[in-house]
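Example 3.2
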Amino acid sequence: MRILRSADYRRMKWKNGGGETVEIAVFPAHATLDNFAWRISMATVASDGSFSIFADCDRTLSLLSGNGLTLAYDGGMGMHLTTASAPYAFPADAATTATLTDGRVTDLNVMSRRTLMSHSVARMGVDGETSLHADKGSVLFCQNGRMAVTRGGTVASLAAQDSLIIGDNAAAGLTLSGKASFFLIRFNEIPQ
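Structure, written as C-alpha cells:
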C-alpha cells in the first residue's frame, strides 16, 4: 500500500488554461497530460465554461463540495450533479460545458485512456469497521473524515483528501475502520 498525502499533490494549470487542478495520482509515474494511462485529480470550478478535451480518454466526475453543476456534452441533454449524485462517466474527448448551480464546486476527476485502461468509481462510506476487496492498482480517496486501512497487519491512516494505492500484483482484502466518506477507484488494463 502506498499513501499519498494531500499536502504533496501536484498543482498545475488546467489543460485549457481556465483554472487550476490538483493532480492526485497519474500512471505511469511522471506521465504528461498527453500520455497518461490513467489520472486522478481534483479541481475547483468557479465559473461556467468548457472542460478540457482529452483525446481517446474516458472521464468520471464526482462532486466533492458545492451546490451542483449541470454538464452538457456534444449538444446532448444536460446532466445535473450534486454532492449526493453517483459518479458520472462520460467521454473526455467530447466537447463538454459546465453550468454552476449556485457558486463554485470542487470535483474529483478520474480519467483513463480507453486504448490502454478502463476505470470505475464508487462513492462509499465507513462508520465503524467494514471489509472491502480491492484489485491491484485500486485507489482509495478519502473525501472527508478519517479512516484506517489494514491489510495483512499493515495499517495506513488516511485523513481528508489523502489517498492510498494498492500497488502490488495481488488483489487485497482490506479492513477499513473509522468514520469517513471515500471513493474506491478501480483500473483495468485493456488487453493489447
